[in-house]
Amino acid sequence: MKKNFTSFSFSVGARNTSPSYLFGPFLTMVLFSLLAACTNKEQTIDAADQHKTWSNYGGGNDQSKYTELSQINKSNVKDLEVAWFYPSGDNKIYQFNPIVVDTVMYVLAKNNSLVALNAKTGEEIWIHANLSRIARRGINYWESEDGTDKRLLFQINNYLQAIDATTGKSILTFGDNGLVDLRQGLDRDPKTLSRAQSGTPGQIFEDLILLGTGTGESYLSTPGFLRAYNVKTGELAWTFHTIPRPGEYGYDTWPKDAYKYVGGVNVWGEITVDAKNGIAFYPLGSPTFDYYGADRIGSNLFGNSLLALDAKTGKRIWHFQTVHHDIWDYDLTSAPQLLTVNHEGQEIEAVAVVGKNGLVYVFNRHTGEPLFPIEEKPVPPSHVEGEEAWPTQPIPTVIPPTTRQEVTEADLSEIFLTEEERADWARRLKDSIQTGMFTPLSDKFETLAMPGAVGGVNWGNTAADPDKGILYIISLDYPSVYDKLLTLEQIEAKTANIGSFFGNARSYIQNCAACHGQQAEGLVGPALSNISERMSIKDFTNIIVSGQGDMPAFTDLTTKQIEDLFEFLSEDGASRFSSQFGGGDDGTPEGPVVASGGAPGGLEDREVVGGSGRYGGPYPEGIEVDHERLYLYQWGLEFPYIISPPWSEIMAYDLNEGTVKWKRPLGEDLEALKMGYKNTGVLRAQRNGMIITATGLVFSTSKDGRVYAFDADNGEELWKSKLPKGSEGLPAMYEVDGKQYLAVPAATPIKFGRDGIPEEGEDPNAQGGYVIYTLPD
Known about the structure:
With 777 residues, the protein is α+β, with helices and mostly antiparallel strands. Helices cover 11% and strands 26% of the residues. Mean pLDDT is 86; it is low at 1-6, 10-45, 498-505 and 572-585.
């Protein structure tokens, strides 16, 4: 029997003591304002200035990607030109958001080295080399009130470390000889945890760094606790248990003792801090295993929730769960956006969050009350043995979704499908495929989910004009076509007689092919052929066991299976391998190297002695689980091309009214363009970034290898520029000596069309790096 559940809840400390309950919404807002006035003065000043600098990931605490710099405007944006270019020095994929402090820019390049550059000229100041396994998307900057202590904080190899921002050398008084072990304090034996750091850098609030947790997506993976550490000492300040312990709020939304074995419920995306009011907003992902929840029956708080915490103490203020008992991988990951809106005649401080399901949720920032109706609507039940899908899901009824929510025969594409294939897909949709955003996966039928596991809105895909109440979104239509759920025994039988290309490498089909291609040619992940020419077996093993970037850990694979995979991928193949993962120490790069490898011992291999693995392992004693019914899936990412365009779009939502102000395709698929199709957007177009300016511009990267400027009022294209490679990291905007600059990371292979082929005439070995634009003198 399912327990009663409410999506929305507000609390300060114990239940039934909320300010809303005691004082009402208006006095609650006044109370929060008075509390905010008593917070650290330095932090308040920083919050007021955050839209004039780009000193932290996403620009500042509020993650709005908004700048008040006004030199570049609608009339002169067409004149932007390249001021300087800093090459990455290798062929690795960098998703890094450059940050700028005073006249110094910090980037990741040259075999995962942190590099300090003159932000005006690109001249190297110092290099801290060979930080392999560093969190890929960015770093944090903090300085003391008197400006004498300046620090860069980052996650690497499951540690938190600090580097002196002036000298580039590790700060060994931080933590234990420079190291804070992120595997500690997660209710598991640290030796069994292969992954604990998040891919995004967290946020700074006063003298704290607020971090999420990377967990992987296996059964019994790492729990996704939220934690805050002191930026000067590395001491743990507070922990919030996203999978509640006995006696904690939400414990009764799980089976008994679920906290002992359930993983996930983590923030791997972007944390937003309302520094003025001292509130941290966390977009939480799903529990693991992502697609089958028979071992976690219930609504599963705080999975898939927007969670508001007191940034100083970690105490829950309110939450809203956007997906109950998630079995579709509909994480929240994009930055919650802080806006002031005029709603029904009242000025309200709001927060908006958008999910991978493409739904837009808007709340009163202080109370968590929805500003526009959200209704619990019935959804289909699960027919898989042991599973109990939640009977309803919260659906916004006024604000339109960012994506299509289903695929019909009319959505099937005429561009990359032959006539025969289109007829076959039409038949499958009619006869054998379950469809619908909240239709549970089946062990008897295929399931087509839209927007799917990697569609909708992802990290980097939200921004705002905070004072005007306008939310900007990049969204992706990317259907997931799931095979029938299979047990491990069924997968082994299915892959027992695979083709000659794979030989005995069944592990590749089972674990890798959906992201890296049937022929190791690369799909969502990079191409993997000839891997031995790019990394050692040691580095390969580290990545398989620990995961890295967006790749989960596969701790269930034996040493022999990993060796077989490496041998298989080392044979001649059709595609070049582009190292997304960063390998180990490739030697000291040229330039002003001041240190290498971070704090002593921080890159040493640490044996993982346990871990359950993707197929389910030993559950804690006393936990009864039917191991023969721990289903798996085949990811379903192979078919983005079956639907008609647009595939990627950029759009503006007016949250004063809850309406779409404008939307337009983002980028062009050049293979479709050759066939006469325009305004398509780009397939597989995850991981783009935006900047919003006070002068009415929206800058956006696109997976077609261009950076664009649009009119913020109507979406009209005003400027574009071709990059040397594609872009996945967030762009940045800053000013030095009265001159405004746009910095764009560009170090990603560009792929077009059904088969993900490079742009015609492009050199696959072209040097990526950071492109800096400015207006001519």
